[in-house]
Amino acid sequence: MQSILPRSIPVLGRQALSGKAMLSTVTHGPGLFGIAMPFGFNAKTAQLTTLKSRERGPPSSIDGCLAKTMPPGFKAQVANLDTFKLPERVTGTAGDVKLGQALVRAWRQDGIVQIAMSDKHMSLWQDAKLASRQFFRKQHSEKAVCVDSQSYAGYIASGEEVTDGIADYSEIFTITRDLDPSDPRVRAKWPCHGPCPWPDVDMKEPMVRYNESLGAEGERLLQLAELGLGVSPGSLTRYTRDGWHHTRVLRFPPRNATNGKGKEGRGIGSHTDYGLLVISAQDDVGGLFVRRPDQRERFANWEKSAAGLKEDDDGWIYIPPVEGVHTVILGDMMQYLTNDFLTATPHKVGLNTRERFALAYFHEPSFQAVLKPLDKVSGGMRLGRSKEQEGIHYGTHFTNMFMRNYPDRVTTKRLIAEDRYCLLSTPEMRTMGAAPAS
Fold first, then answer.
1. Is residue 288 part of a domain?
2. Is 135 a member of any domain?
3. Which residues of 397-407 are buried (b: 16+ CB within 10 A; e: fewer)?
4. Mean pLDDT across the chain
5. The domain containing residue 164 runs over which residues?
6. Which ranges of 150-199 does DSSP label H, i.e. alpha helix?
7. What is the distance between the alpha carbons of residues 114 and 118, in angstroms, rounded to a whole number?
8. Tens digits of per-residue pLDDT, 275-288?
9. I want to staple 176 with a disulfide (CB 3.0 to 4.6 A). Which of 153, 305, 354, 395 is the partner?
10. pTM for the full model?
11. What is the tally of structural domains in the chain?
12. Residues 6+ away with beta carbon under 8 Å from 201
């Protein structure tokens, strides 16, 4: 195998999704750790025979550790995903194409991939996680003042966020584009545009450094996705010039007794995210669940809310914490652009027996972008929709989602009171990279 492939990486192995009803066994094919694999090679095929035979046996000690991290009150299969290593730059080589194709296959199969953190990413994540813990340990009065009435940045108290009419117990600090009040877009009262109300430099500096590194990773992932889909370079990345990237710094309290009890609250209810990619890191306390792509489950969050989708149904996959990786799921705009060839990943978060910390970075189109489906995806496997359609204005989609999630937030109330929403239909709001003149 290695003699015909130009580049290689160590593959960390793949966990099988078993067909068992409650908890899957977690199985590693023997001898696969440390094997040199090419960029883009999906280890699933190599492991298939071994996995089928081993799934009949008792769970390994690794399996038990992974399953034990699942929050109480849930029945789900346990995933063990491929871990891919990204190149430092995407240049369109044969290895890049293979990696792009492997990522697309994994997203179409599992709805999620794992990306190995570099040493630099690991260090930045540790710094960001420490800053997160320090912020959330502050007194409520100190956190509560970190709110801006023009942007949706800042502190969100446990229970303030609403998903499908039910309070989420997650405690959040949202980081959006940090715009000075003198910025022309802020002075023109563009919806969602304003400062990020940082509590102090001790939180701001590590978060900014980590977000910048994730932005670069997001661009490489989109470039690889273009190669994997067989579309022209720039088909996706042209929308992220001046991208409206944002981050949610998350703490989940140990209130696991409410799991599965509806209006008594939960970590975060079932939903899909708004943009292109969600790159996340989590600590060693589990909580994330996803649904795999399924042609029988049709949804389009830009047309009808997907909040609460299949919340209490079977079929959820638990994603256990793995040290040294980012997980990457897809958002609404990736689904829209690819004509459902890739679909947004429904996910939810359960509360565990210990507090849990995570960080989710959203790699988004420009606020001013008007997106239209690609003419063809993956060598013409699916044709684009009508070229006459209006497309989706990302700023409107983003604003709609935040207004829905935070109906009582001061930002929503001011946006409505000052009639800022009507600005979303103006021409200057729909020009890539445009801003009002000073």
1. yes
2. yes
3. bbbbbbbebbe
4. 82
5. 118-430
6. 184-187
7. 13
8. 999 999 999 999 99
9. 153
10. 0.84
11. 1
12. none
